[in-house]
Amino acid sequence: MLLYVLTDLMQELISNLDTSIKNLSRSSLKQHSNTATRVLGARRDKHVSLREEFSVIQSLREDEWESKRPILKSVPMLNHVLPGRESSVDLSFETESARLRDERRLVSRKELKPAAEEVLKLVYEYLARTCDQELSKELLQLWAHHRKASTVNGYANNFKLWMEYCYSEGESPLPPKPFVVAAWLAAISLKDNTASPTDARCAAINYFSKIANAPSITHSPVVEMTKESIRRKLGYKNQQKLPLRQDHIDSIVTYFLWQESPQGIANAFRVTLAYEATLRWDDFKDMVFGDFIVTNDFVRVFLVDTKTDSYKSGQWATFAVSDRPTSAYQLLQKLMEVMAAHSSQEVRDNMSNMPVMFRTTVGLFVDASSSRINYNEFLAELKTACSAVGLDPNLFGTHSMRRGSTTDQFMHGIPDKVIKLSGRWKSNAFERYIDQGQLLQLQLQSLKSRELRLKGVGGIGKLSSITPPTHNQNE
Asked: Which of 13, 97, 311, 409 is the most buried (most CB within 10 A)?
């Protein structure tokens, strides 16, 4: 009889437990349905990074969002802020993204410098003469977009040196004669410390020779032998800067925030933005605050001119909404508050066109292009911060944030495809950004794990007991 009673009691307990679990599951599902929908919606968007290191997609509860919304809308710049919805990626978001892309992607890019214009004039004159064709003004204007202006400017600086050498030797720069090129490379390399400048000079000659329809020096045995000799003599210097990883970034951001100045807060945001969005310097040097679109889950920023966007199709960088005080999202809000309090009405009314790399004056934020901080100024600020937090400033640069972001993603097991997406790589070049010290550490851990595994199964003992084979000398 007791057995039957216990059996009935157990069945009743199991039934009650099952009901409780179902109710809990329904409650949990209802509580987190919006979050799940937003995460799934965000993952459908190919521009959204799924990095776990940056909290992947941290959804805001409705009460948190309502408390933050007035802060976000306190400045005209953040009219792009979208209200809370079932999904972060919806029609309104895509419409806003398309509008911003169409407006910003047509922004004029870098112009050619006088040196580049001088070289191109020489090249086009040679092309017209050798082909016996007159090149129209419209055609030359169109050809100016053949490569990024920054690339052509870099090539032009080296080609100018080649032109000066040729004129001093009574030679013509075009078409390049292999023995003259070899003599120039040998002479100018005497002032070099590495072989890298030699490669750049050859690339410049090849680039403009191709435009001029002149023979290339790429496959010339004389030039190739000269280049190889310089490489073996000088070698290559490891010029890669070390990565600034999450703990480094937090220390640097704290240092900038200690300054309690608008420029300090701005520098803190810039460093964190470059790290979380995996940016190059060129990605954010021309960025304005109107390029940001803020949603519940993440912030999207349009990149006007990027290395991998040759055809102006428009690229986006993404970082997560986070409640960490040192996150890019929190620092963006803090910076907006400070800018609203310390800028003139004229600047506040034009906040969406305010550059992220603005420069401040006493008490006010000055407006427009004359107020941008250049590369050397930002690099100096970063190196000062590195030194203040105990890092060797000579080992770090503006690319260190991008390298640190890539390394941290890799160390946290983020898939390669997601790393490529977050950094907007078209190839596996991101592998070179991963800190080699971390790779070596993983290799050593793998070897140690293998050794322990062999010891666990007696593998080491068996190997030590094996007698090496003896060879018959008569065979």
From this structure: 409
Tokens read off for 294? 């803020």
CB neighbours of 446 closer than 8 A, spacing ≥ 6?
none
The encoded tokens of residue 363 equal 């008490």
Q: Rounded to an integer, what distance in angstroms lies between the CA atom of residue 330 and that of residue 1?
A: 67
Per-residue burial over 23-43, b = 16 or more CB atoms within 10 Å of its CB, e = otherwise: eeeeeeeeeeebbeebbebbe
**What's the distance, Cα to Cα, between the start and end of the chain in Å?**
88
The number of C-alpha atoms within 13 Å of 314 and in the hemisphere containing its C-beta is 16
What are the start-end ranges of the H helices in 47-195? 62-72, 91-104, 114-131, 137-143, 149-168, 178-188
d(CA 98, CA 120): 36
Is the predicted pLDDT of residue 327 greater than 50, yes or no? yes
* Encoded tokens for 207: 């680039």
Report yes or no on whether pTM surpasses 0.90: no
Q: What is the pLDDT of residues 88-125, one digit of tens each?
A: 444 466 777 777 777 776 665 668 999 999 999 999 99
